[in-house]
Prior knowledge:
Helix content: 25-40%
Structural class: alpha/beta
Radius of gyration: 19 Å
Number of strands: 9
Low-confidence stretches: 1-6
Order of helices and strands: HHHHHHEEHEHEHHEHEHEHEE
CATH architecture: Alpha-Beta Barrel
Strand order of the largest sheet: 1-2-3-4-5-6-7-8-9
Bound molecules: pyridoxal-5'-phosphate
CATH superfamily: Aldolase class I
CATH topology: TIM Barrel
Distance between the termini: 47 Å
Number of helices: 13
Amino acid sequence: MKSSRATAWTELLERSVVTPEQLAQVLPVDRAETEEVSARYPLRINPYYLSLMRYPGDPIWLQVVPDRREIEDTGGMEDPLDEERLSPVPNLVHRYPDRVLFLVSNQCATYCRFCNRKRKIGLGFPVDESTFAQGLRYIAQHPEVRDVLLSGGDPLLLQDSVLDGLLGELRAIPHVQIVRIGTRVPCTLPHRITASLCGVLRKHLPLYISTHFNHPWELTPQAKRACSRLADSGIPLGNHTVLLRGVNDDPKVLGELMRALVTARVKPYYLFHPDLVKGTSHFRPSITKGLYIMERLLRSVPQFCLPDYVVDLPHGGGKVPLLPADLRR
Ligand SMILES: *Cc1c(COP(=O)(O)O)cnc(C)c1O
């Protein structure tokens, strides 16, 4: 793939691989398999993220190329965290009293095969002005909500003007103290972090951004530049990583990733054990493996580089930190 640094992000998105035919033209995949799987769980890989692949089955490939095991998975749940039940209005999850998760976009720059909203991402769940209005009204009417976490889909795929309006309305609610944006764009489409976007974000400080890097190969010069731009705009950056079998379930890989993140001005926040989402069981290592990896990490990288290893319990149980027994502190 040729370098796309100067290309506008919208054009890169439009050039995404979305059909089995397109995928078969650029990667040695089984066309029938891609067809079957993507009919159920949509396919999207933008040219930038595609360019990070080095060989078939590598850690980038595994994250985004459809795999037969997704449709053969008989275990798991569509919505293990019970997000739908915990939504008082569409697209707003109110699980902890003081915090809400507000899904403000149904688009992503690339679809992750392990997505925990696999049940709806790319399948056209509606996000429109009425969703925004209902969510904002709910937040305004609930003074106990002090922390709003924007997610989706990817909130940074909204147009600058839409994001500006939304952040402005949130900021106008007096009891909203913290606004956080969860986004994979610095990793999957760093070109989206434009000077103009940073200008919009800077108007609405304090803002926190949670990025989502899973492998050291994702921290390219472009990705690091995107993180730097955000940090220079006054936005502290955290990262969450999902522990994925074959991708990063290795202490060396994760140690390298955590150090690289800190060097890129991103503080590792959570290492998630994969949720019990239907169609993703081939990604799920054992918790024993996760604890082993944490034990190795605790001994090999500074505490500052360490995320909390958490499992998000089914049925709205919440995030629970896991620590190797002999290292609890
Ligand atoms: C993770 C999560 C939050 C934010 O949790 P923090 O631990 O504060 O980062 C809020 N709401 C829901 C539903 C969540 O899953």
